[in-house]
Amino acid sequence: MKTPPGADGNTPDGPREPRSSRWSDLGRPPLNAAALRRGLVREGGLWSEVDVVQRTGSTNSDLVARAAEGRAVEGAVLVAEEQTAGRGRLDRQWTAPPRSGLFFSVLLTPGEVPVGRWGWLPLLTGVAVATGLSRAAGVDTALKWPNDLLVTVGGEERKAGGILAERAGDGGVVIGVGVNVSLKADELPVPTAGSLGLAGAVSTDRDPLLRGVLRSLEEWYGKWRDAGGDAGACGLQEAYVAGCATLGREVRAELPGDRAVVGEAVAVDGDGRLVLATEEGVQEPVGAGDIVHLRPA
């Protein structure tokens, strides 16, 4: 069989100069958008559309804007192969090489759930992501309150992912998820970061990982919504407590207004707040803040 011109990497005028392309890193193939849609978008299901873009600043910002313009409905999923301005809590930057992780946002409109219970959505997403990754990647993940995903690498606890929830108009919430999948040790942004690959994942194929996470999120969101947002009644509170690595530890909660509280994390209450038992004998619920683990559980 005659080789087509250029198929061997050469041109009629000589060897082709190497150039980067979306196919150049064969260890990190692109997501199959059509297959994801076939596997996730179904009649009566939560996911209404799945879009995959090659590069964007932030999937959260893009999906919030789409919702504001009326171009997205509940169940919209926006996935990026690369984010150039990914954000975590407190406006921290989230960067990773192209196609090295899962970077996506979803739009939810839980209108039948009282707004006071929407604070459970980031915690619900954490449980769903941890459950989905355990099934699809064979990696045990733990949850650091309120929104970090932890894995164990070389006996050390490392952050492999994070969750960011933002209001989208009056009735919507956009939840962004970032998970390091195939990051190598020399690609980690900070020494305390990790990835599923470094944690011994049985698979780093992002297509089944994303499908597993989104199916798990659909399942947990359905239970929570059907229970009117009652995290205790639908089993969410129990599941979060079971997977939370923050409980049982001495922590420092860095709160708004430059205030800090140190104590043992003893519970996650019905509102999703972390309850700290301080040295003064006070149990203080924390609804928002940055948590620092001071000692192992």
TrEMBL record:
<dbReference type="InterPro" id="IPR004143">
    <property type="entry name" value="BPL_LPL_catalytic"/>
</dbReference>
<dbReference type="InterPro" id="IPR004408">
    <property type="entry name" value="Biotin_CoA_COase_ligase"/>
</dbReference>
<dbReference type="InterPro" id="IPR003142">
    <property type="entry name" value="BPL_C"/>
</dbReference>
<keyword id="KW-0092">Biotin</keyword>
<protein>
    <recommendedName>
        <fullName>biotin--[biotin carboxyl-carrier protein] ligase</fullName>
        <ecNumber>6.3.4.15</ecNumber>
    </recommendedName>
</protein>
<keyword id="KW-0436">Ligase</keyword>
<feature type="region of interest" description="Disordered">
    <location>
        <begin position="1"/>
        <end position="28"/>
    </location>
</feature>
<feature type="domain" description="BPL/LPL catalytic">
    <location>
        <begin position="36"/>
        <end position="225"/>
    </location>
</feature>
<dbReference type="GO" id="GO:0005737">
    <property type="term" value="C:cytoplasm"/>
</dbReference>
<dbReference type="Pfam" id="PF02237">
    <property type="entry name" value="BPL_C"/>
</dbReference>
<dbReference type="InterPro" id="IPR045864">
    <property type="entry name" value="aa-tRNA-synth_II/BPL/LPL"/>
</dbReference>
<dbReference type="GO" id="GO:0004077">
    <property type="term" value="F:biotin--[biotin carboxyl-carrier protein] ligase activity"/>
</dbReference>
<dbReference type="Pfam" id="PF03099">
    <property type="entry name" value="BPL_LplA_LipB"/>
</dbReference>
